[in-house]
Amino acid sequence: MDASWRVLSAEELEKQYSPSEWVVRRGAQEALQTFLQMGSEATSKARATRKSQLDVPYGDGEGEKVDIYFPDAASEALPFFVFFHGGYWQSGSKDQSAFMVNPLTAHGVAVVIVAYDIAPKGTIDKMVDQVARSIAFVQKRFPENKGIFLCGHSAGAQLAAMMLLVNWSTHGVTPNLKGFFLVSGIYDLEPLLSTSQNAPLHMTPEDARRNSPQRHLEAAPVKPGNSACPMLVIVGQHDSPEFHRQSWEFYETLCQTGWEASFEELPSVDHFEIIWNLTREEDRLNQIILKTIFSRTASPLLPRKPLEVKGQH
């Protein structure tokens, strides 16, 4: 993990940043197909069984929408778990990403699944801005929330981590951020510049530096604005060595800049299983998420102000 990515050949770098090449229980294509299928099934189940507000606009753009899922006892005084899907900023959808909705809403947590404009329509700069606006939207819509907990997977973890750098005054609200779950993420984008993943992104070296939370924290550390905001950096045992290195180095940088950070390697899971296992309530990551949320909410998860859930499905 100490070796620099710069010593890797072009072929090795391509493999390191191709997560499907590292799955151990199925072929690469099968892993991708299973991931999409399980995401679609979980989303269909969540929409059929949970109170929800679907395709709620957080901006004027066609792709700027969120799906919001509520516990049975819906209330504004709830913790909100906000999820940003992965897909290398060029694939994925909120319509295939509601893996964790049923397990979390069963325990009194509202879940927000965010859509953003993936490449080639969107640039990473635009996606970062959209994610910030989606969080500001949640805070304004549910001002009595007990905390907003951000979770991103893969590319979504980079988008979530970039929220550490946001000047919230430009959004007219300071979100009640209480925790980050950064799952199998990429925090320095420079290694991707010479891989096939960059083809639809068209990132320049400047673009990569500007959107690398690792580089920002190293160059100009952002001190914690909220000491009660833990940063959980999580990686799967069967993620590639580069994903492990990126996660560990970002965790170390968070610690060095004063954040309350922890690092977790989840055993026996790859880049895709780590998320699709969230459909199971007993999953290790679900338990970590729930324990963190419960420990950061000031009182038991009981509704105070009844919430009218319009457009329920």
Give a quick summary of the entry.
By secondary structure, this protein is α/β, with parallel strands linked by helices. It has helices at 10-16, 28-49, 101-105, 124-141, 155-161, 205-210, 213-219, 241-256, 273-276, 284-296, and strands spanning 51-57, 65-70, 79-84, 110-114, 147-153, 177-183, 231-236, 261-266.
Defining traits:
eight-stranded mixed sheet; alpha/beta; disordered C terminus; 16% strand; 313 residues
Structure, described:
This protein has 313 residues and is an alpha/beta fold. Helices cover 34% and strands 16% of the residues. It contains ten helices and eight strands. Strands 1-2-4-3-5-6-7-8 form an eight-stranded mixed beta sheet, sandwiched between helices. Strand 3 (79-84), helix 3 and strand 4 form a beta-alpha-beta unit. The radius of gyration is 18 Å and the shape is globular. The relative contact order is 0.17. The model is unreliable at 299-313 (pLDDT under 50).
